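> example.struct
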């Protein structure tokens, strides 16, 4: 428990045999459930994670087919809802997200000032230490596009996957509609806006080490840009046009 709330952490993992152990080992004691979702890895990710099943908090779920990081997170979200977890965070399986920073995402949810918190590496230059120039430039472009798409106009770093959401908001999300692959973070924001969710950026420094990004940025930016365009029209239709006719 953390400040009277049960905490679950979803860990999507695809070919993370070298680092998944560090993610599990460093998970804070106040975390009640650890949901490792092996997205049909072709390496020993599942076997390495299985070695930690002695930790009663760990639930290891294996996808029979590779569905994508967004789909893996949705699987973890569903299990957390079944377990009646109050707040559900997401940490990548590559040990890029510092568990010592997790309380900064949890506190606004506990205090009721936010429904969804996400990391922000872009608002202060010092926070981007270790981020490549190409990656930083791509994030700046997608930040501007995501603001238009989602309607969260002061949003920073929408690609940041270090997040936490409360149970009440998660219950109202249609998890079958979440974009299944990279880009799910951007997609989720438009859906949260339609729900009227309070979203808060939390400044958390980038942490890069042994992990290797699986994102092919040229293709990624193209696909996500098209996704954001569709989401913009979807959001406007759902939030303004359809609501007008219903009233």
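> example.seq
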């Amino acid at each position: 428990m953390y400040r009277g709330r049960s905490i679950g952490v979803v860990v999507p993992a695809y070919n993370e045999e070298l680092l998944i152990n560090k993610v599990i080992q460093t998970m804070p004691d106040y975390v009640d459930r650890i949901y490792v979702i092996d997205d049909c890895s072709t390496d020993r990710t599942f076997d390495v994670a299985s070695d930690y099943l002695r930790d009663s908090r760990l639930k290891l779920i294996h996808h029979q087919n590779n569905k994508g990081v967004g789909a893996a997170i949705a699987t973890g979200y569903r299990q957390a809802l079944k377990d009646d977890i109050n707040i559900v965070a997401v940490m990548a399986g590559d040990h890029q997200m510092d568990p010592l920073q997790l309380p900064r995402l949890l506190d606004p949810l506990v205090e009721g000032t936010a429904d969804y918190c996400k990391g922000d590496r872009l608002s202060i230059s010092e926070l981007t230490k270790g981020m490549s120039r190409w990656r930083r430039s791509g994030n700046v472009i997608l930040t501007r596009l995501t603001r238009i798409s989602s309607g969260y106009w002061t949003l920073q770093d929408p690609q940041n996957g270090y997040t936490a959401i409360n149970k009440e908001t998660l219950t109202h999300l249609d998890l079958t509609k979440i974009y299944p692959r990279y880009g799910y973070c951007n997609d989720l924001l438009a859906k949260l806006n339609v729900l009227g969710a309070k979203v808060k950026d939390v400044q958390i420094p980038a942490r890069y080490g042994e992990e290797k990004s699986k994102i092919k940025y040229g293709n990624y930016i193209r696909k996500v840009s098209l996704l954001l365009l569709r989401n913009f029209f979807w959001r406007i239709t759902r939030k303004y046009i359809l609501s007008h006719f219903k009233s």
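> remarks
Residues 217-246 form the longest helix (30 residues).
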